[in-house]
Amino acid sequence: MTDPRVTLVSLAKKISEKGLTISIGGNISTSLPDMRILITPSKQHKTLSELDVNDLSVVSLSGELIQGPKPSAELPMHIAIHSAAQGNNWVIHAHPPMAVAYASEKTLPEQLFVESSRLRFSLVGLKSPGSEELAKAVVEKIREGSNAILLEGHGVVVVSNYANDAVLLLEELENLCKTDLARHILKSSR
Ligand SMILES: [Zn+2]
After folding, report:
1. Residues 152, 137: Cα–Cα separation, whole Å
2. Domains in the chain, start-ordered, CATH in brackets?
């Protein structure tokens, strides 16, 4: 089995390189055995694209730091998602520019492609980053069946049981928002 630390670092690099988040704005976690999670560190420590396997934090589901540097400020949201145990082993929070624009306008894109049909997206209204309130609202959407949640004025969260699938969901969501926007521009210029 691949070391989850290696997988997590490669996801962090992938989403930075693909422009799906600016390097300081995003965090990733995965569940580990014994009620623990592995999570990216606080952005004061290192940015996503610079991460190394030794930079990751191990935290208990009750929020206690077990190993590594100070965890991401979005720890409450990651803990809440893993505690909800809906089979979502991988959680990515990122700031993909187009999806963030949709989230800021409180608009969801239209389902346009077969590829995007597995995206079950929803929107969470304005909440402070890192807050318990945000964590609760996101978990509620996941319980209702969402796997891609847009956070008003902030970013997005995608969840999946598989690491690479979580990246694909993020990519598909961003792509859908781009195409939906281009479609609106073309329509309005006719
Ligand atoms: Zn954020």
Report:
1. 12
2. 4-189 (3.40.225.10)
Tokens of 145: 């069946």
Ligand 1 centroid distance, CA of 189 (Å)? 34
- The pLDDT value recorded for residue 114 is 78
Backbone angle region of 131, left / alpha / beta, with phi > 0 → left and psi within -120 to 50 → alpha: beta
Q: What residues have a C-beta under 5 A from ligand 1, the ion?
A: 155
Separation of CA 156 and ligand 1 centre (Å): 8
Q: Give the tokens for residue 179.
A: 């195409």
User: Who contacts 126 (Cβ-Cβ below 8 Å, separation ≥6)?
Assistant: 152, 153, 154
Q: What Cα–Cα distance (Å) separates residue 68 from each residue in 20, 65, 107?
A: 26, 8, 38
Q: What is the pLDDT of residues 111-153, one digit of tens each?
A: 887 777 899 999 999 999 999 999 999 999 999 999 999 999 9
Using one digit for the tens of pLDDT, what is the confidence trace for 151-185?
999 999 999 999 999 999 999 999 999 999 999 99
